[in-house]
Amino acid sequence: MKCLRQVLIIPLALVMFFLLVFPLRRSASAQELHFNIARTIVIDDKDAIDGDIMSLASKKEALTRSAKNSDERMFGVLIANPVMVYRTLSTLPVARDGEAVVNVTMMGGAIEVGDYITSSPIAGKGQKAEGLAGYMVGVALGNFDGKNASASADFGGKKYPIGRVKINVGIGPASPVITKAAGGILGTLRQLATAILFNISTSKQAERIIRYILAVLIAVVIIYISYRTFGRNVTKGIEAIGRNPLAKGSIQAMITLNIILLALSCIVGVALSLVIISL
After folding, report:
1. Domains in the chain, start-ordered, CATH in brackets?
2. Closest C-alpha to 167, from 8, 18, 36, 2
3. What is the strand order of the sheet 42-43 is part of?
């Protein structure tokens, strides 16, 4: 009985492992089905329409259209027909997850698939984000170049075309892993590693810190090796003068040479560190 139990445990453990690491593939129809769950919240903005980006207003649990570039108070996208809605009020629901069609402008330039979308100074309308700084409402899943604009808006004496683009909603700081992980445990781990490496490589402050640490390490290592090599020769040379006074001249020359090499090595180490910091 004990042997039979052991025989059954091994296959079951293998099956559980493969289910966790390599999840079952979904059918094509399942992949095309996208869910967005929305909820109704007090809308403190009568001019807000379907697809507008909404932000938290000063009033508790009330929303108004975002009217600020990269608004940190962004809450979600106003959506008329979500797949699921938690309805407690008669107002339009707001989506904070899944896919949604958002109103955008050309203020930040033409939008392409994969671009980060953030809020703009035009109330409720999104735009292509400038770089990877600030808050985003999601990632563009479609293109918009202004040619098929449905309307336009005036801002700062200029007219900007307005259109609609489907996005993958993910409100927060820009991140290459704004979408959900796929591929089981290994996929999640790969995604976390990608996020860490990405943030390190794109953060100017982190890059500066790494440069300072690297510069200090290089300087310390070079000075330490130089001291252990040339400094030891100087010490041994001084001891040799006491043991062999007749060779005092040649020993002093050797000591002087090692002191010069020690100084040059330290200067090179410090200079190399300064170069790394200034790059």
Report:
1. 26-174 (2.40.300), 204-278 (1.20.20)
2. 36
3. 42-43, 62-65, 53-56, 74-78, 93-95, 37-40, 84-86
> Strand, helix or coil at 93?
strand
User: Pick from 39, 34, 189: which is nearest to 100 by CA?
Assistant: 34
Contact at 8 Å (CB) between 92 and 39?
Answer: no
Distance of CA 89 to the CA centre of its chain: 36
Q: Give percent helix, percent strand, percent coil of the chain, each to the nearest 5.
A: 40, 25, 35
Q: What pTM was computed for the model? A: 0.50
Write out the DSSP string of 5-74.
HHHHHHHHHHHHHHHHHSPPPPPHHHHT----EEEE-EE--TT--TT-EEEE-SSTTEEEE--STT-TTE
pLDDT in tens, 45-95: 888 899 999 998 876 668 889 998 888 889 899 887 766 655 555 567 888
d(C-alpha 135, C-alpha 149), whole Å: 25
Residue in this structure with the two tokens 């820009």, named with its chain if needed: 174
The phi-psi region of residue 86 (left if phi > 0; otherwise alpha if psi is between -120 and 50; otherwise beta) is beta
